[in-house]
């Protein structure tokens, strides 16, 4: 609505122009994109921390099993997603899956390898491939690909 101020000039009612609105929307979109990128990276790091924690818990339960039996379970006798027990002794109520594990397609998953029960190798793939713990894990263990995080008995 226009108000007549003088015979020559007209004043428009206050408001935003289309260009001002587009600039504000663009700035909000750019900020949202930056925030989502950082948020997704934080979620990836959290899943990687969960993976490392899971493998260390499994390592502890495998050590308890070894103390009782003087050998580690063979690959075929160790299942993720189920209890880890021997007779009456329960070493883990539930052997965890990878945090990104999807039941329908079964991937990704942790791997457990033990051919003869004298040693084992737990393997997972971290989302942050530049994580220094990957290289450090290969200093202790000689199994798995260079890009995988591995855990073995000490």
**SS element count, helices:** 2
Through-space gap between termini: 81 Å
- The gyration radius over C-alpha positions equals 28 Å
Q: What is the global morphology?
A: elongated
Oligomer: single chain
Short description:
It holds the Pfam family N_methyl. This is Type II secretion system protein GspG C-terminal domain-containing protein. The protein is α+β, with helices and mostly antiparallel strands and 154 residues long.
Keywords:
2 helices; 3-stranded antiparallel sheet; alpha+beta; Glycoprotein, Type 4 Pilin; two-stranded antiparallel sheet; membrane; 154 residues
Secondary-structure map:
Blueprint (H helix, E strand, L loop, with lengths): L1 E3 L5 E3 L5 H52 L14 E3 L2 E4 L18 E3 L7 E4 L7 H9 L8 E3 L3
Antiparallel strand pairs: 1-2, 3-4, 5-6, 6-7
Keywords: Membrane, Methylation, Transmembrane, Transmembrane helix
GO cellular component, one term: type II protein secretion system complex
Protein name: Type II secretion system protein GspG C-terminal domain-containing protein
């Amino acid at each position: 609505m226009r108000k007549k101020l003088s015979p020559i000039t007209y004043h428009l009612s206050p408001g935003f122009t289309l260009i001002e609105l587009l600039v504000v929307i663009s700035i909000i979109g750019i900020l949202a994109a930056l925030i989502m990128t950082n948020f997704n990276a934080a979620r990836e790091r959290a899943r990687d921390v969960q993976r490392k924690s899971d493998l260390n818990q499994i390592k502890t339960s495998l050590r308890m099993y070894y103390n009782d039996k003087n050998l580690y379970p063979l690959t075929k006798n160790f299942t993720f997603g189920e209890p880890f027990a021997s007779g009456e002794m329960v070493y883990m109520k539930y052997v965890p899956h990878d945090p990104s594990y999807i039941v329908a397609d079964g991937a990704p998953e942790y791997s457990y390898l033990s051919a003869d029960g004298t040693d084992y190798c737990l393997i997972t793939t971290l989302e942050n491939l530049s994580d220094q713990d990957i290289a450090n894990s290969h200093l202790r263990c000689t199994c798995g690909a260079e890009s995988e995080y591995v855990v073995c008995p000490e």
